[in-house]
Amino acid sequence: MRRIFPFLLPLALGALAQSTLGVEPPVLLQEAQPGESLTQTLLVHNVGTRPVRVRASLGDWTYDPMGKIQFLPPGTLKESASPWTAFSPAEFLLGPKESRPLTYTLTLPKDAAPGTHWGVLFLESEDPNPPPGVPLATFRVRMAHIFYVNVPPLKTSGRITGIVPSPPQRPQDPFRFALQYQNTGNTAQKLSGRFEVRDASGKRVAEAEVEEVVVLPGQVRVLPVALVGPLPVWNYTALAILNYGDPAKDVAADLPFALRAPLAPPPSREGEKGGTP
Q1: Measured between alpha carbons, how far is residue 153 from residues 115, 117, 248, 263 in Å?
Q2: Residue 144: CA atoms inside 13 Å, Cβ hemisphere, count?
Q3: pLDDT (tens digit, 9 = 90+) per residue, 126-145?
Q4: CATH code for the structural domain at 158-259
Q5: Which residues 6+ apart lie within 8 Å of 248 measured at CB?
Q6: What is the pTM of this model?
Q7: For the CA atoms of 65, 66, 69, 73, what is the dihedral angle to 10 degrees?
Q8: How far apart are CA 46 and CA 44, in angstroms?
Q9: Of 52, 58, 110, 191, which sits with the fewest C-beta atoms within 10 Å of its C-beta?
Q10: d(CA 115, CA 108)
Q11: What is the pLDDT of residues 242-263, one digit of tens each?
């Protein structure tokens, strides 16, 4: 079963250098049974005006709690799908504005563990005819195709493990919170939600954006929240409500906090003027 999930796209692009190389699709999530094989054909593009030599290779990736991506040798992670993967061709030339297919096959072992497994197929391009005296590395850039495979049975669960407040140091600073979330299931999750502030009567008096992220199985993510005013001095309750993909179930946590000084409204954008244009 082949499914493309746009919410996983930032993982494929966020940590890689921009280049004249492109790949379709940049990310893919599939589902398979132990012992099954899946074949996928990618389309690699050279959108530039010079020919490039493209080399393909496999790897693993993960991230720290703040979301910083780390790339690792293939097979490093216990959830790695890279050792199950074979691809062809390993190296090829692309002329200006040219495209060509690259095929890879995932062959799951018969004892594949349930849950999400993942890997990355790197596509590194270089100028096959660099100018004399210029280091070849100057012309090397890298794109990636991120792939996931879900092996049933799947378990989706999670919890908010804490809300850590950081009061503003200056009147114009926001009141910052760090939401700590743990994926306790065995599948990659799309995490979304909202952050509210309520007064003593339970009335919602403020809200802040919660970044939408992907959380890998067993991993912890820290979601930063910046609360701005106007909000007067008072005792409040912060309420975090997150959803990990189950439409019938949210996870929530609250934290009483005191605002010792009025919270200022966000600064107006430079050059912004009032009135009707």
Answers
A1: 7, 13, 19, 48
A2: 23
A3: 877 765 655 544 456 778 99
A4: 2.60.40.10
A5: none
A6: 0.82
A7: -30
A8: 7
A9: 110
A10: 12
A11: 999 888 899 999 999 999 999 9
Dihedral angle of Cα 31, 71, 142, 129, to the nearest 10 degrees:
-130
Helix (H, G, I), strand (E, B) or coil at 173: coil
Q: How far apart are CA 20 and CA 275, in angstroms?
A: 43
3-class state of residue 202 by DSSP: coil
Scanning the structure block, which residue is given the tokens 């994926």? 183
Query: Is it true that domain 21-151 has CATH number 2.60.40.10?
Result: yes
| Spatial separation of the C-alpha atoms in residues 233 and 276, rounded to whole Å | 33
The domains of the chain are located at: 21-151, 158-259
> What number of residues does the chain have?
277
- Name the 3-class secondary structure at 82: helix
User: Distance between terminal CA atoms of the chain?
Assistant: 52
Q: Is the pLDDT reported for residue 150 higher than 90?
A: yes
**Pairwise CA distance, residues 138 & 122, whole Å:** 18
Tally the C-alpha atoms within 13 A of residue 213's C-alpha that lie toward its C-beta.
25
